[in-house]
Amino acid sequence: METELTKQIKSLNHHYRPKLNTNMRTIRWADEVWTPTGIVDSIRFEDYYANEEYLCRVLDISRFSETDQRTTAATHEPGKCFRDGGTDKNDRKCRGCVFRCHNWKVGMMVTCFEVKITYSDFRGVNGHNFHGNENYYCVPKALAPKIAGEIPDDIGILAYYEGERQYGLRQFRPSGWRDITDQTKVELLYNAMKKWCDGAVFI
């Protein structure tokens, strides 16, 4: 049976540090979801920038439409920076330039969270089901340093703080990135969808 502390930590990881800082609804989560190896405490699906780059309408003119190419070429020589005549791009020089364009492709990422309240709970055989792109143990702050040396390097740790001045989850150790197949994503999403259809509530 879940403790109130477990429930509290679960509720906090639902919206912990979203990848896209936006008012759009880009996150969906579910608790107690079946994975290929067992039930994970929480799983989250969210949008993220799978591919992200900055283009220059002058230096990268071939990447734009024919109309955009003609418009740019009418006022500036293609392939040469209008500021210094060079052919290179860098964040310092290009920041704030009217010809700089942000180009990205949005993908879906999966994050798995396993909540462990005590060390004996952590050492148990159940509840280590990590199948996400990012994966975290969520533990009370005192437990975080105790388990850090016993878990794989690509598994992150979120420490739970509670007090008058400190409250919530803080990253004790970041998660690495795992590439997972579209088939795995579909299976996890399907199992989460069963929870949603059974009455999960989004706050």
Helix content: 10-25%
Largest sheet: 6 strands, mixed
Quaternary state reads: single chain
With helices defined by DSSP (H or I, 4 residues minimum), what is the helix count?
Answer: 6
What is the chain-wise order of helices and strands? HEEHHEHEHEEH
**How widely separated are the two ends?**
23 Å
Strand order of the largest sheet: 1-2-3-4-5-6
Task: Based on Cα principal axes, name the global outline.
Answer: elongated
Structural class: alpha/beta
| Mean residue pLDDT | 90
Number of strands: 6
Low-confidence regions: none
Task: Give a verbal description of the structure.
The protein has 203 residues and is an alpha/beta fold. It folds into two domains: 135 residues, no CATH class; 41 residues, no CATH class. It is 23% helix and 32% strand. The chain is built from six helices and six strands. The protein has a six-stranded mixed β-sheet with strand order 1-2-3-4-5-6, sandwiched between helices. Strand 1 and strand 2 form a beta hairpin. The model has no long low-confidence stretch (mean pLDDT 90).
Question: What is the structure about, briefly put?
Answer:
The protein is of the alpha/beta class and 203 residues long. 23% of the residues lie in helices and 32% in strands.
Index terms:
203 residues; single chain; 6 strands; 6-stranded mixed beta sheet; 32% strand; alpha/beta
